[in-house]
From TrEMBL:
Protein name as annotated: RNase adapter RapZ
UniProt organism field: Ventrimonas faecis
The encoding gene: rapZ
Keywords (A to Z) from UniProt: ATP-binding, GTP-binding, Nucleotide-binding
Boundaries of every RapZ-like N-terminal domain copy: 1-157
Sites where the protein binds GTP: 59-62
Amino acid sequence: MRLVIVTGMSGAGKTSALKMLEDLGFYCVDNLPIPLMEAFVELVMQKPAAHEEVALGIDIRSGEELPQLEQVLENWKVQQVPYEILFLDSSDATLVKRYKETRRSHPLAGKGRVDSGIQLEREKLAFIKQQANVILDTSSLLTRELRKELEKIFVQDRRYQNLFITVLSFGFKYGIPNDADLVFDVRFLPNPYYVEALRSHTGQEAEVQAYVRQGGTADRFLSMLYEMLDFLIPNYVQEGKNQLVIAIGCTGGKHRSVTVANALYQHLSGLEEYGLKIEHRDIER
């Protein structure tokens, strides 16, 4: 039997994750009272063939019962009950934005500010996050991207290191992305903008890519970038980072940055233990 505890911050996508796991064949139960969890799992384990994959949703709604979860998990360790913890998280700014968009109140905020409720929730859930096998930061994930990550983890059984990487191309003329962790300026590369036949095209096309990579400067830069990131990424994971945004910028975000971002994404695609996506923020401007 595979038992997954699905938990995390309110607004980070726990309900959506449970629905997706249900679609993937899991028997899902949301917000089961914590005092009943051990009895429920015991019943399921008596007939493992009936429910081979089970997901239990637990969140801050458990209220005063929540601290009891720590003892339940400790009992399962002693009894050698196989379980995993999936923790859904998002940045505070993203959570506040989501609450404002849905006009819902945070379960711990009461009549106060949403960010106060978020901070209190983080404190109450800290012990669960520390024990999590998988931490998924959904700050920049679309619904289909979340489903893709869950499929990789729970269907394809890929090794997962709790890091989601976003490769982002952008134009400096439109501003540096606020959420960028690493920013690389590729305005030193040949610029297709000054070639009439290429100006209206983008770094998604072979002709533009060939122009940007002429002379070997781009390839040399990419080689050094690959080496640096291959060193940095495992160290970020070791330090507990679970979201990494690598921003590649040129003047307009249409040619050079897109070409380099695509090449970097292709390189990182070989690292299957990490979540990965690519965005071209300004390619249509």
